[in-house]
Amino acid sequence: MWLSKQIKPVGATADADLGLTTISGRKVGVATRGEVRDLPIYGPGGYLWTPASGAAVLVIKGGPGGEEQCVAGTRPPEGAPGIEPGEVLLYGPGGNSLYLKKDGSVEIRGTRVSVAGELSVTGALTVNGQPYAPCSC
């Protein structure tokens, strides 16, 4: 009886590692201290992201013994612009980005813009630094 009171159950642990993705997709493979496959990806609400193969990612470990793992994020790319506290920059491949600035302005950058449906803009709209005027073609 006294021995059973001396043995304590293993508590939940939390740990993190930096790893490289080996398989991309909805569930990824990541090499940290060894390769782990079929890891789920978690991100902020409303944000869907799949890391490219070879991307440096943050792997969160939890649960008893740290056997439950997930990918939580990635490093910003080299040369990424600095942003002010509270600002949000969503960026993708090819230089596409959506930048929400603390002054209330929004910058949208991309090489190709495709709008399906309707785009509604409230406030002043400038295109390449000039006030937008609809075409009277």
Topology:
Blueprint: H1 2-6, E1 15-23, E2 28-31, E3 35-39, E4 56-62, E5 68-74, E6 88-91, E7 97-100, E8 106-109, E9 126-127, E10 130-131
Antiparallel strand pairs: 1-2, 1-4, 2-3, 4-5, 6-7, 7-8, 9-10
Features:
137 residues; mainly beta; OB fold (Dihydrolipoamide Acetyltransferase, E2P); 2 domains; 5-stranded antiparallel sheet; 3-stranded antiparallel sheet; 1 helix; 10 strands; elongated
The total of helices stands at: 1
CATH class categorisation of the largest domain? Mainly Beta
Helix/strand/pairing class, anyone?
Answer: mainly beta
CATH architecture of the largest domain: Beta Barrel
Tell me what you see in this structure:
It is a single chain. It is elongated and about 80 Å long. The chain has one helix at 2-6, and strands at 15-23, 28-31, 35-39, 56-62, 68-74, 88-91, 97-100, 106-109, 126-127, 130-131. The chain is 4% helix and 35% strand. The mean pLDDT is 79. A 5-stranded antiparallel sheet has the order 3-2-1-4-5, with no helix packed on it. It has a 3-stranded antiparallel sheet with strand order 6-7-8, with no helix packed on it. It has 2 domains: 15-74, OB fold (Dihydrolipoamide Acetyltransferase, E2P) (Beta Barrel); 79-116, no CATH class.
Question: What would you say about this model in short?
Answer:
The protein is mainly β and 137 residues long. Helices cover 4% and strands 35% of the residues.
